[in-house]
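Saturday, quiet lab. Running sequence design on the structure tokens for the scaffold JK sent over.
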């Protein structure tokens, strides 16, 4: 399966600081088989996909004045409340009988905690090393600290296969 690794920052990212496939080529990543630079024309579509389908609905929009920029509109408190509800629901499904099942209730709880957006995309933010692509929980933790109107800048976007 394919997905993208997005570089996201609250600071503008210069082109020479964009992540590329070379960012990950010397690392030991078990989460992907291979990665490749996403062609420039596909990167704009990937940013639209991020705003329209991957991030929580209506929390972001594209900035029409600045390319590769999205604007946070708020909504983190409501999103966190819903996330906690999903965590509780997943935890309640764990029983002594199914706790050790390989793909079962425990696994689904773990996935909810690590990837609350339930997407294959990964994210590199200014909060951690450029070569460290994290699941959506880390991005959402950062988003929950933003004030409405904050701009997020999108740097490199990498296609990866897992």
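Result came back. Writing it out in full:
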């Amino acid at each position: 399966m394919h997905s993208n690794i997005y570089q996201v920052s609250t600071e503008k990212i210069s082109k020479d600081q964009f992540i590329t496939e070379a960012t990950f080529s010397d690392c030991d990543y078990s989460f992907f088989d291979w990665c490749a630079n996403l062609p420039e024309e596909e990167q704009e579509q990937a940013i639209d996909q991020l705003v329209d389908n991957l991030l929580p609905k209506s929390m972001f929009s594209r900035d029409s004045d600045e390319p590769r920029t999205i604007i946070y509109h708020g909504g983190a408190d409501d999103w966190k409340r819903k996330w906690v509800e999903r965590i509780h629901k997943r935890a309640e499904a764990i029983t002594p009988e199914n706790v050790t099942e390989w793909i079962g209730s425990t696994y689904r709880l773990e996935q909810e905690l690590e990837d609350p957006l339930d997407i294959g995309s990964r994210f590199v933010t200014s909060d951690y090393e450029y070569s460290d692509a994290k699941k959506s929980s880390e991005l959402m933790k950062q988003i929950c600290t933003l004030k409405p109107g904050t701009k997020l800048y999108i740097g490199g976007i990498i296609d990866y296969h897992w």
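Notes for JK: The chain has a mean pLDDT of 92. The CA atoms of residues 7 and 124 lie 5 Å apart. Ask whether to fix the surface positions before the next round.
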